[in-house]
Structure formats: structure tokens, C-alpha cells
Design brief:
Blueprint: E1 8-14, H1 19-32, E2 39-43, E3 46-53, E4 56-63, E5 68-73, H2 84-91, E6 96-99, H3 110-125, E7 128-129, E8 138-141, E9 150-157, E10 162-169, E11 172-179, E12 183-185
Length: 187
């Protein structure tokens, strides 16, 4: 088997909410079923998300791809045939539905893997605030100098955790920038 065929990343679908259990099962079964070298890693990509609820700041992990995990494995042999041991090992894991791509899954490209890994490392450095609003949505400011005013979301800056609103003050549309946690959906 050439080095280029060894250890490609594949996307595997899991039952909803079973991503971590499937990952743990694969990791525990690797030495027991002598699959080291064939299945190299199982990964549930997550990002840290910061929320403020009732004035308290909490950081949680949010899955990038709910219902999917990434598995680095030598799925194909030197003749480009599926390695039955690897196929069976992964598909028989509790919580796993199967490979994306059916009987002939296509590995992720190096670019796709690089983008995912860059995102993971970026999120380790700075948790991002969770913003569940969309541009054009009407929200009510619940805290700060503009409390109780309603405005339309014009811009969302997830990196800074800020939302730019257009509110009406003295019959004039005025841009206001607030923290994402200072607003709530208007009734």
C-alpha cells in the first residue's frame, strides 16, 4: 500500500447525538481488534461557544457537523478495493449508520481536512459567542442605554460578539451596536 493511500479522512454518519459514543467505541476497540495502523483516528470536530444566560457567561462545545464524525483510516488496499476488515470494523460500531458515499466513499481532500483542522485550532484559541439571530430579524434590546427599543439587525459580527441594529429614535433610523446577549427576539 502506498503512503498516499494510507490514512485518508472519511465522513461517517452517526445516529443523532451518538457522535461521541461512536468515537469512544472506535478508540477502545482499536487495540482489542488489532486495527491500529488501519484505523488511525476518529474525530468529532467541535468549537467552543460562549453564551451569557442570566448574567452568567458559560462556554460549551458545539459540534461542527452534528450527526457525523471524521475517521482517518486505510479504507482502500493497494488495488483500490475496499478493505473489508476496516469497512466492517467501522460499520459495526454502535451508533454508526455508514460512510458518506455508500459502497465507494470518497476521502476528504487535503484542502478540506486542512480547513477543518485550521477551524479547530482557531476555536481552541478563542471561544466564539453563540449568535442565533439572522440579518433582517427584529429584536428587542433588553439591557443597556437603549433598553426596550426594537431594531432590525443590519450586521452580525460573530468574532466580536456584536450586532449592529437599526433602531428608531425620535423618528429617525439610528445605527446602534450592542453585544449579542443584550438582545432578544421581539414578541
Amino acid at each position: 500500500m502506498s503512503e498516499s493511500d494510507k490514512g485518508k479522512w472519511f465522513v461517517v454518519q452517526t445516529l443523532s447525538g451518538q457522535e461521541n459514543k461512536a468515537q469512544e467505541s472506535i478508540t477502545k476497540r482499536l487495540p482489542r481488534e488489532e486495527m491500529e495502523g488501519l484505523v488511525l483516528e476518529a474525530l468529532v470536530p467541535v468549537q467552543k461557544v460562549t453564551e451569557v444566560k442570566l448574567g452568567k457567561k458559560t462556554t460549551t462545545n458545539k459540534k461542527f457537523f452534528p450527526g457525523y464524525i471524521l475517521i482517518k483510516a486505510a479504507l482502500y488496499d493497494e488495488n483500490r478495493r475496499v478493505n473489508d476488515r476496516v469497512w466492517t470494523f467501522i460499520n459495526d460500531t454502535p451508533g454508526i449508520i455508514g460512510f458518506i458515499g455508500g459502497d465507494k466513499p470518497v476521502p476528504l481532500t487535503d484542502q478540506e481536512v486542512g480547513d477543518i483542522m485550521d477551524q479547530l485550532h482557531r476555536d481552541e484559541e478563542a471561544p466564539r459567542p453563540r449568535i442565533d439571530f439572522t440579518i433582517g430579524e427584529i429584536v428587542k434590546i433588553k439591557e443597556g442605554p437603549f433598553e426596550n427599543l426594537e431594531g432590525k439587525i443590519e450586521q452580525i459580527d460573530p468574532d466580536r460578539g456584536k450586532i449592529k441594529l437599526s433602531v428608531t429614535i425620535f423618528d429617525r433610523s439610528t445605527p446602534v451596536e450592542v453585544e449579542y446577549w443584550q438582545v432578544e427576539r421581539a414578541d
